[in-house]
């Protein structure tokens, strides 16, 4: 079982999931050395702001705990709902971009296993790309 200490989660991300510290640096804006220092148990509080520290901890937790604890269908459903709720993108728009029926998408949001693999793939590619564009 993975420990929930931020330093241990970061070690898991770096070692078990093979996430390069350089990539985390690009994503967070925190220097690679500070990230490695944190993973090795050094005090980095003077090197980054409290907000940067919380953002790093949140990101690492999401990657190490969040992704493995939700299946792909739940993630696609959540992203679809986020496009609708956060950005006001109607299900109809998503259906037109993905070449799926509105009813199919609405049912998928309620029952994640309601679509065939082909339709889930179409929806996933569409919503992930839309989410990428809008973020």
UniProtKB/TrEMBL annotation:
A Pfam family this chain is assigned to: HTH_60
Top-level taxonomic group: Bacteria
Name of the protein described by the UniProt record: XRE family transcriptional regulator
Organismal lineage: Bacteria, Bacillati, Bacillota, Bacilli, Bacillales
């Amino acid at each position: 079982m993975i420990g929930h200490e931020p330093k241990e989660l970061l070690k898991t991300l770096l070692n078990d999931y093979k996430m390069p510290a350089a990539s985390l640096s690009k994503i967070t804006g925190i220097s690679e050395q500070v990230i490695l220092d944190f993973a090795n148990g050094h005090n980095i509080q003077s090197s980054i702001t409290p907000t940067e520290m919380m953002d790093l901890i949140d990101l690492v937790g999401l990657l190490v705990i969040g992704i493995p604890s939700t299946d792909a269908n739940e993630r696609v459903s959540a992203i679809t709902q986020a496009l609708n709720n956060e950005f006001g993108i109607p299900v109809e728009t998503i259906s037109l971009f993905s070449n799926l029926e509105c009813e199919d998408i609405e049912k998928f949001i309620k029952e994640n296993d309601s679509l065939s693999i082909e339709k889930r793939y179409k929806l996933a590619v569409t919503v992930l790309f839309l989410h990428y564009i809008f973020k």
